[in-house]
């Protein structure tokens, strides 16, 4: 089999997605996800101008060889743009491999360790009661793990709230279009550090101990602040505390780890296994939560999972609305296969996304399932995709009250 064409498809059914379609001379094709939220066209250009042409004439079965060629062979390596482009190619190649072998991808990864992937979704609210009510709705829908965020007084809208139900939808946080500008939020550690322990005290008092709940810090704290938060949250038994620190400062996790037994998760901003390695090998985290679309795809995430398994670290792959159902399917194929699966983040995609990019995982009673179709089971409807043109859009920006830049 030979690769004959590499198509880069940029579409905006509800938000922007970048898909890679790799076609072969045998008629089999594969589809991968190369979406990088807010930087979509830079990945599309890397694919169109630099990476796609290198694949023509190659045998798509040699996934690892192509991966190594694109990662190391090009001298310039790593970073979110190139690793997302590589991830798109990698997923499309695994899709082809599965279709050619007439097996679903999980089967090629070692087969099923479990039937479904335990999933979590997002709850948010303008106050504690609204977050609590939103959690109750998710529990009624079958979820047993739920992320809880709440508006912080004085922040002008805080990451992850979106006012109740919207928190669990794959929607925009700002209005896309030619004049789009990032939404600016204020982040001050004082109100934040007072609010979050109080939120979890409220949730445990009203929801009991059984439901697994947790919080996403979104890399906003200093090491000592994160240590304080982890310690103060300890009585409320979080499932994990997500992304407490900036991705640059792996060594700072030692401080947080020493301060408490609150389980820690990290990784959605990492782009390769070497970034994960110190946290895994020193057992400074409990969950590694890279994004398959940003670490170079299934090939690299599988290696990260194996490293993690060696050190009692479980997986919790990033599954937000800004990656497409193709990447969500790749997540679940890997979730089913690895022994050290922990939990899978998910969002509900609106119908329009499911029409343009069909075949994503299905949720039943709090678990995600993929189809037994050969490959990833997902596809892109190119005619429909063309009708939904790219719209510029940005992630929000967090600033301190004095106007200086803070980590989002
Ligand atoms: C979040 C993401 O899902 C998560 O845990 O941290 O929503 C994140 O903000 C976006 O993926 C950024 O693109
Ligand atoms: Mg997160």
User: What is the architecture of the largest domain at the second tier of CATH?
Assistant: Alpha-Beta Barrel
Taking all Cα atoms into account, the compactness measure Rg is 20 Å
Return the structural class: alpha/beta
Bound molecules: D-mannonic acid, magnesium ion
Strand content of the residues, in percent? 15-25%
CATH class type of the largest domain? Alpha Beta
Report, as a whole number of angstroms, the end-to-end distance. Answer: 45 Å
Characterize the structure shown.
The chain is of the alpha/beta class. It folds into two domains: 3-103, Enolase-like, domain 1; 117-374, TIM Barrel (Alpha-Beta Barrel), CATH 3.20.20. The chain is built from 13 helices and 16 strands. The strands form three sheets. Strands 4, 5, 7, 8, 9, 10, 11, 12, 13 and 14 form a ten-stranded mixed sheet that branches. Strands 1-2-3 form a three-stranded antiparallel sheet. The chain has a three-stranded mixed sheet with strand order 6-15-16, with no helix packed on it. Helix 7 links the parallel strand 7 and strand 8 (241-242). Helix 6 runs parallel beside helix 7 (223-233). The longest helix is centred in the N-terminal third of the chain and has 23 residues, at 79-101. The chain is globular and about 60 Å long. It starts with a strand and ends with a strand. The relative contact order is 0.17. Mean pLDDT is 94; it is low at 160-172. Residues 37, 216, 218, 268, 318, 320, 322, 345, 395 line the site of D-mannonic acid (CS2). Residues 37, 216, 218, 268, 318, 320, 322, 345, 395 line the site of D-mannonic acid.
């Amino acid at each position: 089999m030979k690769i004959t064409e590499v198509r880069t498809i940029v579409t905006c059914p509800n938000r922007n997605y970048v898909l890679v379609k790799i076609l072969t001379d045998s008629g089999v094709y594969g589809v991968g996800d190369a979406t990088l939220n807010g930087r979509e066209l830079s990945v599309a250009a890397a694919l169109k101008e630099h990476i796609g042409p290198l694949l023509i004439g190659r045998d798509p079965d040699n996934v690892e060889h192509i991966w190594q060629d694109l990662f190391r062979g090009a001298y310039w390596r790593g970073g979110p743009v190139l690793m997302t482009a590589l991830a798109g190619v990698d997923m499309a190649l695994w899709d082809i491999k599965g279709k050619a072998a007439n097996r679903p991808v999980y089967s090629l990864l070692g087969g099923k360790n479990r039937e479904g992937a335990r999933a979590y979704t997002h709850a948010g609210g303008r106050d504690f009661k609204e977050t609590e009510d939103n959690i109750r709705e998710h529990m009624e829908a079958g979820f047993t793990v739920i992320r809880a965020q709440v508006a912080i007084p004085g922040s002008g809208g805080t990451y992850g709230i979106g006012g109740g139900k919207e928190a669990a939808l794959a929607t925009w946080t700002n209005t896309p279009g030619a004049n789009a500008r990032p939404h600016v939020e204020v982040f001050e550690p004082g109100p934040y550090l007072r609010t979050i322990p109080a939120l979890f005290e409220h949730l445990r008092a009203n929801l009991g101990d059984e439901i697994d709940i947790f919080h996403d810090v979104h890399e906003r704290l200093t090491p000592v602040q994160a240590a304080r938060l982890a310690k103060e949250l300890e009585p409320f038994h979080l499932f994990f505390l997500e992304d407490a620190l900036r991705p640059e400062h792996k060594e700072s996790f030692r401080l947080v780890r020493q301060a408490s037994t609150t389980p820690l998760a990290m990784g959605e901003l990492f782009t390769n296994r070497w970034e994960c390695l110190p946290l895994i090998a020193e057992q400074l985290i409990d969950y590694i939560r890279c994004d398959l679309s940003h670490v170079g795809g299934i090939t690299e995430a599988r290696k990260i999972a194996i490293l993690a398994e060696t050190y009692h670290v479980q997986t919790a792959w990033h599954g937000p609305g800004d990656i497409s159902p193709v990447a969500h399917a790749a997540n679940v194929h890997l979730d089913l296969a690895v022994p050290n699966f922990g939990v899978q983040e998910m969002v509900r995609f609106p119908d329009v996304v499911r029409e343009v990019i069909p075949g994503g995982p299905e949720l039943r009673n709090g678990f995600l399932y993929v189809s037994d179709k050969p490959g990833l089971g997902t596809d892109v409807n190119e005619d429909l995709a063309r009708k939904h043109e790219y719209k510029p859009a940005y992630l929000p920006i967090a600033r301190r009250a004095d106007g200086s830049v803070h980590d989002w």
